[in-house]
Amino acid sequence: MKRVRVFWWCVALAGAALIPLRPVAGQACQVGKTYPNGTVVLKIGDQEMVALPEAVEQALLKLDLDNRALRMELAIKDSLLAGSKLARAWYDTTVQRQRSYIADLDSLYRGYRKLTEDYRRLSNEPWLTFSGGLGATGRDHKPAVLAGMGIRRVHVWGFLQEANAGGFVGLSLRLF
Q1: pTM for the full model?
Q2: Backbone angles phi and psi of 93, in degrees to 5
Q3: Three-class SS of residue 72?
Q4: If DSSP codes are grouped into helix, strand and coil, which group holds residue 163?
Q5: What domain range is 151 assigned to?
Q6: What is the dihedral sign for C-alpha 42, 47, 50, 51?
Q7: Is residue 41 domain-resident?
Q8: C-alpha angle with apex 58: 55 to 61, nearest 5 degrees?
Q9: Which of 47, 53, 118, 135 lies at a 20 to 30 A Cα distance from 172?
Q10: Which phi and psi angles does 173 have, rounded to 5°?
Q11: Where does a domain end: 61, 86, 104?
Q12: Whole-number CA gyration radius for the chain
């Protein structure tokens, strides 16, 4: 007969922690059912125990170790998954901020570009001007002289006539 080991831990798990480890004198050990893999059900007194061959015991130990390893691997993968979810949330927030920042920078770029165009346009305008003109006023059509100086868009004119004189201050604005 093959060497047989008794898994007392199976008995303990079944709630039979108070079972004596050895049969008490006078109790008979009866072999109950025998299974094809070598497992035997033993009956000692009114309690039943399972005796397993060493190969089955090793297979069960290996299954238990595999179960523990898979549980640890599952826990590691769960923690990695939680970390990746957190990283994805950070990534989404970063991308959203980058898009907002890009929109702000684009707006600033367009503003500075328009400012540059305005400065170019202003640089094409003369900064000091002189304007003059002749005309007549009243019924007698006496001649009048209009003369003025301008700095950029601000102009000052003077009006001279035989009996009249005056001054004007004005601003030049572009319409088109």
Answers
A1: 0.37
A2: -65, -40
A3: helix
A4: coil
A5: 128-171
A6: negative
A7: yes
A8: 150
A9: 135
A10: -120, 140
A11: 61
A12: 53
**Dihedral of the alpha carbons of 95, 96, 102, 104, in degrees to the nearest 10:** -160
- Give the model's confidence band at 6: pLDDT under 50 very low, under 70 low, under 90 confident, else very high: very low
Cβ neighbour number for residue 11 with a 10 Å cutoff: 17
Q: Where are the alpha helices (DSSP H) in 8-53?
A: 8-13
Task: Provide CB contacts within 8 A for 40, sequence distance 6+.
Answer: 4, 31, 32, 33, 34, 50, 51
43-64 average pLDDT score: 89
Which segments of 4-53 does DSSP mark as H helices, in order?
A: 8-13
DSSP H stretches of helix in 28-165: 54-124
Q: Say how many domains are in the chain.
A: 2
Q: In this structure, what token pair is assigned to residue 79?
A: 């923690």
- For residue 15, is it within any domain? yes
In a domain, 176, yes or no: no
b/e code 112-139 from CB counts within 10 Å (16+ = b) = eeeeeeeeeeeeeeeeeeeeeeeeeeee
Residue type, 57: E
Select from 21, 37, 61 the last residue of a domain: 61
H or E element in which residue 147 lies: strand 142-151
Q: How far apart are CA 165 and CA 144, in angstroms?
A: 9
Q: Please, which pLDDT band fits residue 15 given cuts at 50, 70 and 90?
A: very low
For residues 21 and 7, is the Cβ–Cβ distance under 8 A? no
In a domain, 78, yes or no: no
